[in-house]
Design a protein that fits this description.
Number of helices: 21
Oligomer: single chain
GO molecular function: gamma-tubulin binding; microtubule minus-end binding
Main location: cytoplasm
Subcellular location: Cytoplasm, Cytoskeleton, Microtubule organizing center
Structural class: mainly alpha
Radius of gyration: 36 Å
Helix content: 55-70%
InterPro entries: GCP, GCP_C, GCP_C_sf, GCP_N
Family: Belongs to the TUBGCP family.
Number of domains: 2
């Protein structure tokens, strides 16, 4: 148009009316360009904002085909450099953005090593993030673009150089109404996702690591635990500040080497940890758990029972990149909370078994109608309670949820799905193990505390009732055999002593009251929390059996 006007002007044939006539065909296009330039200048926009402006103006001029085609051509030309940045990101995982125009930001201060220390796993969520100003034609697929580059970066951090295989139609130099660029991005995502998943499962054996953690932190493999609790009994009985973590670690290594756990190729990653607070207090400070109330009652158990290594001992697991993406610090902390609860339940069970053996040792004596007989029934009820609780935790909660998670992991299509299934498993186990229900957990802890106090008092109860000839001699296997040999002897008069009988009755009354209270709370909450119905059946079964006895 300009050339035509200049030609007419040079020959002296350009009048004002002619100028207006020759400008008419381009008037709408010039007006559209004027609007674009004005908006871009006033708002001082650049990068994706320019692309959004051009595209929005092209849509606004849909009725004028010539203007629309011009603006679409401008949009494609302007997006050429932007699409080349996008192409490097989705095909190589590299941000080549010298002017900061790309919609993905990189925070280089976050390193992959932080995953083993950071509860929030900021590296995975914030190392690469979406910025404002996403081009409108990429808005619906921005999350997929971000994830594709993240997966490629993980593989590069592992030293596994991988690039999406190019194809004839894989270039992202332009976009149009055929949406071919969207298909290219989706193909790149599928490739990066499957490659990373195969790398973590095949080379780093994620499933094997999870199974190993289940053996130890969820007490799936019991022989090493029994051996460890036997050889570490004295050390764990000390106060937390006095416990030697190095000694516990050496004892743990010994237990692992001398049991079936030695066949596990990943057992060397297991380490010992001694916390400084009780389980209830730890749950109260764990920022992600749904503990609705914190009050002075959190100290109830700590006032009645001195905290020892048995209450604060935990296991940890050394996790390295890239498995730390799934087994982050937060995930391991949740495993440790479940372990501490299970471990202490096992400890209570062992103590009650010891008390039961003492009672069994005096069966040869005629204890009918005595405090020993009543104590024996109480011991049986406590054992039934703790065994029912352990059965619920292991066979009703952990095992079925583990199998559900395992099956879901086999069909997962991306590492993010793996993380989601794994976190869902841990959160579900925490809740169904009562660790997110403080009212119920406090009841259970109080019952366990009573069981420990009773088992500690058992030797005094028996020794106060039977004369073994030496009041200083403990009720061990030798003493019990001696009692059996003297089965005809007369029980000491203290069998009917008020102090002994009252002690047994006091234990029995407090235990029954707490057990009944727990059963009532479980039954009332079972409609809102259906999984509590299973535990209520076991607990109420203990109470009914005791009432029958």
């Amino acid at each position: 148009m300009v050339a035509q006007l200049e030609h007419q002007f040079r020959f002296g044939r350009l009048s004002l009316q002619g100028l207006w006539f020759y400008c008419q065909p381009m008037m709408r296009s010039m007006q559209a360009l004027s609007i674009v330039i004005q908006k871009a200048s006033v708002n001082n926009i650049s990068g994706s904002a320019v692309l959004n402006l051009l595209q929005s103006q092209a849509k606004a001029m849909a009725g004028d085909n010539a203007v629309r085609l011009m603006l679409e051509k401008m949009t494609q030309c302007a997006s050429s450099a932007y699409m080349s940045i996008l192409e490097r990101w989705v095909y190589e995982g590299v941000i080549d953005d010298p002017y900061g125009e790309f919609f993905i930001a990189e925070d280089k201060s976050l390193q992959k090593e932080s995953l083993t220390q950071d509860y929030e796993a900021k590296y995975w969520r914030q190392r690469y993030s979406l910025k404002d100003g996403i081009p409108s034609f990429l808005a619906n697929i921005a999350g997929t673009i971000l994830t594709t580059g993240k997966y490629l970066n993980v593989m590069r951090e592992c030293g596994h150089n991988v690039q999406v295989p190019p194809s004839e139609n894989s270039k992202l130099m332009s976009f149009g109404s055929n949406h071919q660029y969207l298909e290219c991005i989706k193909a790149a995502y599928n490739f990066a996702s499957s490659e990373l998943l195969n790398l973590i499962n095949d080379k780093y054996d994620l499933t094997g690591r999870l199974r190993s953690i289940k053996h130890y932190l969820l007490l799936d493999q019991g022989d090493f635990l029994v051996h460890f609790m036997d050889i570490a009994r004295d050390e764990l009985a000390k106060k937390p500040d006095e416990v030697s973590v190095e000694k516990l670690q050496s004892l743990l290594d010994l237990a692992l080497r001398t049991t079936a756990a030695a066949a596990d190729p990943f057992h060397e990653g297991l380490t010992c940890v001694v916390e400084r607070s009780s389980l209830l207090r730890r749950l109260g400070t764990f920022n992600d758990l749904e503990v609705s109330q914190r009050s002075s009652t959190d100290n109830d158990l700590e006032e009645t029972v001195s905290i020892t290594g048995l209450e604060t001992f935990s296991l940890s697991y050394k996790v390295h990149w890239p498995l730390s993406i799934v087994l982050s610090r937060k995930a391991l902390a949740k495993y440790q909370l479940i372990f501490r609860f299970l471990f202490h339940c096992k400890h209570v069970d062992r103590q009650l078994c010891g008390a039961w053996q003492i009672h069994q040792g005096v069966r040869a004596l005629n204890t009918r109608g005595t405090a020993i007989s009543r104590s024996s029934l109480l011991c049986r009820s406590m054992l039934k309670f703790i065994n029912s609780l352990l059965h619920y935790l292991t066979f009703e909660v952990i095992e079925p949820n583990w199998h559900v998670m395992y099956n879901r992991l086999q069909t997962a299509n991306s590492i993010d799905e793996v993380i989601q299934h794994h976190d869902f498993f841990l959160d579900k186990c925490l809740r169904e193990c009562l660790l997110l229900l403080p009212e119920l957990l406090k009841k259970v802890e109080r019952l366990k505390s009573m069981c420990l106090q009773y088992s500690a008092a058992t030797q005094w109860l028996i020794s106060s009732s039977i004369d073994l000839g030496d009041s200083e001699e403990p009720i061990d296997s030798v003493g019990l055999n001696k009692a059996k040999r003297k089965s005809g002897q007369v029980l000491k008069s203290t069998t009917k002593n008020v102090a002994v009988t009252d002690s047994v009755l006091k234990f029995e009354k407090e235990f029954n009251t707490e057990l009944q209270s727990l059963g009532s709370i479980l039954s009332n909450n079972s409609q809102a929390e259906p999984y509590l119905a299973h535990l209520a059946q076991w607990i109420l079964g203990v109470k009914n059996e005791q009432n029958g006895l």
